[in-house]
Amino acid sequence: xxxxxxxxxxxxxxxxxxxxxxxxxxxxxxxxxxxxxxxxxxxxxxxxxxxxxxxxxxxxxxxxxxxxxxxxxxxxxxxxxxxxxxxxxxxxxxxxxxxxxxxxxxxxxxxxxxxxxxxxxxxxxxxxxxxxxxxxxxxxxxxxxxxxxxxxxxxxxxxxxxxxxxxxxxxxxxxxxxxxxxxxxxxxxxxxxxxxxxxxxxxxxxxxxxxxxxxxxxxxxxxxxxxxxxxxxxxxxxxxxxxxxxxxxxxxxxxxxxxxxxxxxxxxxxxxxxxxxxxxxxxxxxxxxxxxxxxxxxxxxxxxxxxxxxxxxxxxxxxxxxxxxxxxxxxxxxxxxxxxxxxxxxxxxxxxxxxxxxxxxxxxxxxxxxxxxxxxxxxxxxxxxxxxxxxxxxxxxxxxxxxxxxxxxxxxxxxxxxxxxxxxxxxxxxxxxxxxxxxxxxxxxxxxxxxxxxxxxxxxxxxxxxxxxxxxxxxxxxxxxxxxxxxxxxxxxxxxxxxxx
Amino acid sequence: xxxxxxxxxxxxxxxxxxxxxxxxxxxxxxxxxxxxxxxxxxxxxxxxxxxxxxxxxxxxxxxxxxxxxxxxxxxxxxxxxxxxxxxxxxxxxxxxxxxxxxxxxxxxxxxxxxxxxxxxxxxxxxxxxxxxxxxxxxx
Lengths: 501, 139
What we know:
By secondary structure, chain A is mainly α. In chain A, 72% of the residues lie in helices and 1% in strands. Chain A has helices spanning 2-9, 12-30, 35-46, 52-77, 86-97, 101-133, 139-156, 161-175, 201-217, 239-259, 266-281, 294-309, 311-317, 323-334, 343-346, 348-369, 373-378, 384-403, 406-424, 430-452, 457-461, 464-492; strands spanning 178-179, 186-187. The longest helix of chain A is centred in the N-terminal third of the chain and has 33 residues, at 101-133.
């Protein structure tokens, strides 16, 4: 089956898509502005004319490319391109200052490849198993998963559970705009026909992530970016460095694979978790903070593996838990493919082709990015004053191309402004984005579940899987409330504990 | 200040949403209607946003933040709004050229030769890529 996937992938258009995806992804990861979510959002409308598998290969390759691009700037410039590359700055830049940038980049690339492959093995085995098991899931189970996913997301994102929970609710509320999926009643359209189809998730993501970032960067003075010099011959790590990296790479791979299953910013969490783990068990404690290669190998491997693992709930259940994966789901659906329990049986070529494409994308990442890393790094010299206006126009044009609607551009502008002020005020964007996406799933599951259980929440919760998910979600909410109440009490007594986490 | 404003905004948004949600039919537990989730979500959001707003007012711990740069934001938003407006009436190529030119000047690109040439080449490039290569039908 996987072999069939490889055969389907090895066509010229698909290979070209993988190469382009990895290159674009690396560019995106290196340059400030769009981010993974914004870039995939931009490319979805452009993929309309493509073969579905080719389009999916393109998107998957962008994922890997962006992760690696983020690590390039972390190592060479001490500026993380993505959240998951923050921790790479600590050791990677120190290595670069000692003239070992090439080794750090090579280990990051090799580690990403190996760990990404570990994640893919997990995907290859777990996704079909989970898909098989979820064939018996009904609306109550999907309601339970959606609720649990949103609660975990609000707990893991940001510094305040309350604020993240509020963002989830705002997202769910925005998701109700348009037609009620079950009764067809118009909701919150205010007579505007453009709102009958609801608020497009892709436009929202492009606005809050992409346009808000552009607004943030415009008007800033152009900073002279000091990039560490890099020569091609310095790309090879020493024997000692390779030996020190092997353990962290494999540990990071397995850690990322497990953490990637958790809803939320799992790539970022896995990179931090790997860094902490490697630091704890390291026998070279004096090197940490001064260029320990384990601090690059482990986190970079973990985040790549986590990215792959995030696909497991998407492909097997059809439920995304991060904005970027939700965009991938949008891409699937635009091409007539509905991920979920029946994907393996109804579109086996697409399913196995996508998995095979991730192996190929991973491989191209290693082949293309490493030799050309100097070229990508030189892009950082483009002044933001020129780059940001260009990215802004690309964003507007891409948003228009989704539905050929100028109304969407108005929404883009509105969400861009909202995203900008939300970031300034420390409100998280991801919960709102996932809320708007999962809200309709949640509503459909809840309404149909209540009908099935004759309106009884007790009967709904007594279903084993639904009950388990709802129990865990309730427990997490209660723990959050207790921590908040205790925090308030301590503050009242003059303690140093603040309300926010 | 910005945290108070945003907290107030979300409070107002939640209350407004709840007001309109209450005009939909809630239904019952056995037969939930179109207002079922909106009323629940709106109610919870109103509560959360109220708690958030009160906690921000009580704490009053404005973290030091970089300046908002409101002047630049206003100019940028005006350019974007005009760009959308212009797309209704003039060709994409021309609208994009004008928008890029103004955005480059707002970004402090000095002189006129550089912004004009970047805006011109880029507008043409985008038009070629999106219209010819990707077949996007512009208004």
